[in-house]
Amino acid sequence: MSVEIGEIACVVGARPNFMKMAPVFEALRAYPEIRPTLIHTGQHYDEAMSRVFFEELGMPAPDVNLEVGSAPHAVQTARILERFDALLESRPPAMVLVAGDVNSTVACALAAAKRSIPVGHVESGLRSRDRTMPEELNRIVTDVLADFLFAPSADGVENLRAEGIDSSKIHLVGNSMIDSLVRHLPAARARQTPARFGMERRGYAVVTLHRPSNVDDPDNLARILQALHDLSERIPIVFPAHPRTAARIAGLYPESGSGNSGLGICEPLGYLEFLGLVDGARLVLTDSGGIQEETTVLGVPCLTFRDNTERPITVSEGTNRLIGSDPAAIAPAASAVLSAEPPEPRAPALWDGRAGERIASILAAALGAEPALASHSAARFPL
Fold it and tell me: Are residues 17 and 106 in the same domain?
C-alpha cells in the first residue's frame, strides 16, 4: 500500500521492544523526508527496565511518554489504548510502527487501525501455539491489524500465510534484535561484566525467569530454586532477577532473600552488561523469548524452561533446547550441556545486522520517500 510521506510513530513499551526498534529508528532517520518519532508507553518505567536501555542503545529520549505504568493486563492495555488514541487524534502520523508482543504492541496497533492509520509490525508471524500466553494473543491480534508484517524468519512467513494474511503485506527481513546485538557486542565485551561478578569466561551459568507460569506459584518456584541451587554446586550461577521474580522470591524467603546461598541473585542489568554476561556464559537457562535468539547467535547453549517456543528456528538452527516446565528437568538437561563441547555460533538467514535497514527501506518505498542519504554498511559479527 502507498501512503503520504510524513511522521512514522515508532512505539516502544517494554525493554525487548527497545532492542528491536532501535535499529529501525536509526535507519529511518537516514531518509530526509521521513520524520520518525519515538513514543514510549511507559509499560516498563524504572531505571533498570527502561531509561538505561535507551542510553546504551543510543536511542534519543522519547518524543512522548504515555506513562501508563504497571497494572493487570486488561487495565494496562486499556490505559495504553486510551492514551495513544488521544495522541493520534492530536497529531496523527502517516504510519504507526510497533514491535514484539507486549500489551503496548497490540493496544497501539488497535488504536491506529481504528483511525485507518497504517500499521507496521516488527517481529511478525511468531507463534507458540499456546493461547494461555498473553503474548501469543497480542501477536495474533497485531498481525491481523497490521498492513506491513516484518517477519524475522521463514517460519514466521509460513505462519502468516497459513492464517490467510495477504502475501503482499508480508516481508521477510531478518531479526532487528540481532542488529542491536551485532552493533553493541564489542562495547558489551569491553565492560567485562563476568569479571565484575568474579566469573571466568565459559565458567558460569546465567538464569532469567519471569513468566507467571514459572514464578507465580510459590510451590513451583520453590522447586525451581532448589533445582538451581543444586546446579550451582556444579557451576556458579548469576541470576539477574526481573522485579516480579524478585518479589516472588522475597515472599518465599523474606529473611535470606533467596533461600539458597548458592544462587547469585542480583538486580536487573542494563543491556550492555547483560549482553556481556550472556556472551561469556557456558549455559543459559531462561523462559525469555529474545534470549533464545541472542544465545543462538552467540553460540551459548540455551535451556528454555517452557513447553513451547514461538522461536522454533532457535531449536532447529540454533543452540536452544526446550526442556519443559518441570523443575526436575533442569539437572539432566544442564548436565548434558556441561558434558558436551560448546556449540559454534549460528546465524539463521538474514540475521546479519541489517534487518533495520530492510524495514526502513520497505516503509520508505511505501511512503514514496527518496533513497537514504547514505547506505548503512553491513555490520560484521564480532564473534
Answer: yes
